[in-house]
Amino acid sequence: MKLWIPDRVYFEPLAIEYPIGEKIFNFCKKNNIEIFKTTSHNQVRGIPGSTEKAKFANAKKTLVVGRKKSLNLDVCKPSAHYQFSLMTNCPGNCEYCYLFSTQGRNPYVRIYVNTNEIFKTIEKYIKKRLPEITVFEAASTGDPLGVEHITGTLKDTIEFFGTLDKGRLRVVTKFANVDPILDASHNGHTRFRFSINSNYVIDNFEHNTDNLEDRLKAAKKLGRANYPLGFIIAPIIRHENWKEQYSSLIKKLHSHIDFAEKDSISFELIQHRFTSNAKNIILERFPNTKLEMDETIRKKKYGKYGRMKYVYQKEEALEIKDFISGLIKEYFPNAIIEYFT
After folding, report:
1. 56 located within any domain
2. How many Cβ atoms from other residues are within 10 Å of residue 304's Cβ?
3. Domain of 310, in residue numbers
4. Model pTM?
């Protein structure tokens, strides 16, 4: 497990005046990280690179610190009622990343310092649905655990949700640095999910993330700290020997984690998909990618906001669903499979 350290950090106006902004500024000073000022994240200049591939690599080592200005929350089906952002983009460098469709041209990592305003917004959305419980996803636009050693905002958020009677938090990660949140007062209100996959997918496509072994060890730590746990298998890719490798994945998960004393864990299953825009960006940044992105053998599917994506054909998707669901039911008979999409 290696913690992400940016090469350069840009501060938007007033960001440094917030406690989180001051904390990040001190982190930069301590680690001799270059500090710049910018009027807005859209005005960031000076990220080196003469090619798209080089610019992308350097942007992934760039952090922008600012305030979250739009506080309207989007729906987040099927994982939660709403999503909110502690950050945008991710220290990881996954070739298939769905964020390429929406944030592909600005891949630097952004952190938001005005968490109190975000928390107040969450409380307003909870009130709208009373007396029902409202579930929020915190990792739809980035992986907050990947920068927790810099920000501390994820622990603050977990403890905030721990005080809410009708609010629940969901977080997903490919990172393993869970030590800062082990003692958080979560009150069982945060379900932490780990994104896991076959060796082929992790080795070929999930760059700058923690390996499967470290993720499973981190999951075990959180289980012992009484966090509700879940696992997202995504994206499920029909590569050579995919059935053997996904079988091995579920067996390894079973052998590493003892859920006998835990509440039912959850699984979310997501087949590989891509948009035309994402494909173009992926090919620019990863010209030698092994990702299969052949539109002629895929099925068109229209998602939120009418955005068209390519998924597996119906028969192929059904085979994925039945095969992996069968494995989960065999090794984790009390688990909940929340959805397949």
Report:
1. no
2. 9
3. 66-340
4. 0.92
Please tell me the total count of domains within the chain: 1
Establish if 18 belongs to a structural domain.
Answer: no
- For residue 257, is it within any domain? yes
Instruction: Give the CATH number of the domain where residue 138 resides.
Output: 3.80.30.30
| Beta-sheet strand order (sheet of 62-66) | 34-37, 8-11, 62-66, 109-112, 87-88
Which residues are CB-neighbours of 223 under 8 A, at least 6 positions away? 229, 257, 258, 259, 262
Are 206 and 174 in contact, with CB atoms under 8 Å apart? yes
Nearest CA among 271, 237, 269, 274 for reference residue 101:
274
Residue 115 near residue 138 (C-beta atoms within 8 A)? no
Question: Tens-digit pLDDT profile for the chain (341 aa)?
Answer: 789 999 999 999 999 999 999 999 999 999 999 999 987 876 777 777 777 778 888 888 999 999 999 999 999 988 899 999 999 998 999 999 877 766 556 688 999 999 999 999 999 999 999 999 999 999 988 999 999 999 999 999 999 999 999 999 999 999 999 999 999 999 999 999 999 999 999 999 999 999 999 999 999 999 999 999 999 999 999 999 999 999 999 999 998 887 554 557 999 999 999 999 889 989 988 999 999 999 999 999 987 666 799 999 999 999 999 999 999 999 999 899 999 99
Residue 173 placed within a domain: yes
Coil/strand/helix, residue 178? coil
